[in-house]
Amino acid sequence: MLNIKKNLSTLNKNMVNAANECDRDAKSISLLAVSKKHPIELIKEAHAHGQNHFGENFVQEGVDKIRTIKSDKLCWHFIGHIQSNKTRVIAEHFDWVHTVDRIKIAERLSRQRPIKATSLNVCVQVNIDNEIAKSGVHMSDLVKLCQAIDELPNLTLRGLMCIPATRDKYKEQRKPFAELYQQKKLLNEHNLKLDTLSMGMTNDFQAAIKEGATIIRIGTALFGSR
Questions:
Q1: Residues 6 or more apart from 201 whose CB is under 8 A from it?
Q2: Per the confidence metrics, is the pTM higher than 0.90?
Q3: What domains appear along the chain, each with residue ranges and CATH number?
C-alpha cells in the first residue's frame, strides 16, 4: 500500500546520505515531486508532509491541478516538452520551466509572462547524450542560447537540465551529470550566474547529487508506478 509519508522520509534520508558521502550540504539540494498522472489527493498528501515543489509534464493536466488546488504555498515546475502554442498557459501558471531548448520558446514565455507576476525561473534543457529522439539543445549551441535567454525580460535563467540515456551502473550514471556540471561552470565563466542543475531521477539521483545536482526530479520512488 502506498505510504507517501514513509516514501518522503526515505527519500529525504537517502538525499542526506548521498550529500554526506560527497561532502555536500543536503540543504543545497531540492526534491521536485513529479506528480504527472497522479491524482490531486496524493499531491495534497505530500504537501501535508512537507513537500512543496511539484513537477508536471503535461500542460493541461498541470494547469488543471494548479487551478484546483489554488495554493500559493506550492511551487509548480513544468518539466515536459514545450509546444509553441502552449507557452502562454505555461507562462501564466507555472513558477519554473525546466525544458527550454529554443530561443523562440524563451521569447514567447518572456512576452507572455503576466506583468504582475514574478520572473519565470528557467532552465535550459541540454541533450547531453545527443539522442535523436530526445529534446534539448546540443552543447555546441548552448552558450549562444543561454546568453540570448539571459537578455530577455520576465525570465530568470537559473541553470541547466538534462535527461541522460539510461545507464545501470553508478560510475556510468555519473558521466553525463559531470558533463552538465562542467557546462554550467563554463557558462558562468561567460558572465552568467547559473545556480541550478536539474538532474537525476528515481534510478540515478545519487549519481546526480555526487556531480552537483541542486534539483532532483522524483516520481516513482514517491508516488509509485502510474
A1: 34, 163, 216, 217, 218, 219
A2: yes
A3: 4-221 (3.20.20.10)
